[in-house]
Amino acid sequence: MSTTNTSDRELDEIVRIARAAAAVVMEVYATPFTVELKGPDDPVTRADREANALICRALEAAFPGDAILAEESVPSGEELASRFQKERVFFVDPLDGTREFADRNGEFAVMIGLAVRGRAALGVVVMPTTGEALAGRADAGLAFLEARDGSRRPLAVSSVSAPGDATLIVSRSHRPKLVEPLLARLGITKLVPCGSVGVKIARIATGEVDLYVHGGGGAKLWDSCAPEAVLRAAGGRFTDLGGEPIDYAGPGLKLDRGIIATNGALQDAVVAAARPELG
């Protein structure tokens, strides 16, 4: 359960930056746009690139000296290693759910997360089509949803504790192989399909659904940093498939050991059910 206090100047600034990027995303969304491929099954649009540039400029101005690792401007080699060495590292996904953006189904998000000493500390997830911004400071229990009109309400996860009563939110397009065995072991029958990691975890943070599992394929640290901070601030838990914290200190960007994100009460049962899938 989050606190009712919603005052945090650093968090407010990141909400402002993410909302500005969301406005850019929606400007492109309202026009015909081209979808390119950066690699196999890896789409990108003008919205991704323009939002990426805006966020990086704004973070550099507001938080000089902090490192930034953003999806559309990733450094390589020594520069990447150098950024991971910083105490504070921003992880930016300027348009999480590019496939959903291209399909125009509304399930996409702008995400800015801050890791401090390798742990997700602060996050903002903005849903451009609804105008909602979810924000959280993980270790302070400060988590809120800011509506389009600027009003705020605290975030809190659900209280569901029996796996058989839980609702699992699943990928609309990339359901990992481990989902079916997990459903059988946990007795879960309620599934909700959704695009974007950020939107899925936002729905856990608001109490609409109870858990999410990602096998790790294709996901990067900018997919998890902001949602993790928000979810933990709202009272949930977020680990890899083995139940260990996500390490944001590098050296790689891939989430090779996947994600288990829950309302907290379900975490231990889901981690235990996922253990056979780790090999």
Automatic annotation (TrEMBL):
Mg(2+) 2 binds at D93. CDD domains: CysQ (cd01638). Keywords: Hydrolase, Magnesium, Metal-binding. This is 3'-5'-bisphosphate nucleotidase. Mg(2+) 1 binds at E71, L95, D96, D223. GO terms for molecular function: 3'(2'),5'-bisphosphate nucleotidase activity; metal ion binding. It comes from the Bacteria. Gene3D superfamilies: 3.40.190.80, Fructose-1,6-Bisphosphatase, subunit A, domain 1 (3.30.540.10). The keyword Hydrolase applies. GO terms for biological process: phosphatidylinositol phosphate biosynthetic process. Its cofactor is Mg(2+). InterPro entries: CysQ/Inositol_MonoPase, Inositol_monophosphatase-like, Inositol_monophosphatase_CS. Its EC number is 3.1.3.7. Pfam families: Inositol_P.
